[in-house]
Fold this protein.
Amino acid sequence: MNRTLLFDSPFLLGFERTRLLVERAAKAAAESYPPYNVEETSESRLRISLAVAGFSPDQLAVVVEDNQLVVSGKGDGKAGEGERAYLHRGIAARSFVRSFVLADGMEVEGAVLEHGLLHIDLLQKEPGKLVKRIPIRSAG
C-alpha cells in the first residue's frame, strides 16, 4: 500500500505506527464476510456481533494481537453434504478471517456464541492524563 501523504508531513514525526493502523483499518474495511454489527452498549463499552450461523465454538477463534482483533472461523463446508440435497444453499459455511483495529486501551472482555451470532464485548479504558514538565538547561 502506498504511503499516505498526510503522514509525510514534517509536523507529524514518529507517526509510523498510526499510519500502519490506518492501513490495517483500510484493509479490514474491504472484507465483507461474515456480516457484522458494532453497537455501543454503554459509554465505555462496545459489542461486535458477527453472523456465524453454522459454526460451532471450536471452529471459531478470537485473538488480539498488537491492537488488532482477529476473528477467524474454519468452516468445513462439506460436513453433511452427502446426506443432504440442497435446493438452495444460502447459508455460507466457508472459512473466514475478519479483522478490527482497536484503539489504545481497548480490551476484549469476552466472547459468546448465541443463536448463530458471535458477540464480542469490548471495554474502552479511560487513559490517565499525563502532564510532564520538561526542564530547560542553560548551555552557556
User: Anything to note?
Assistant: The mean pLDDT is 83. The two ends are 48 Å apart (CA to CA). The beta strands are 36-42, 45-51, 60-65, 68-73, 96-101, 106-114, 117-124.
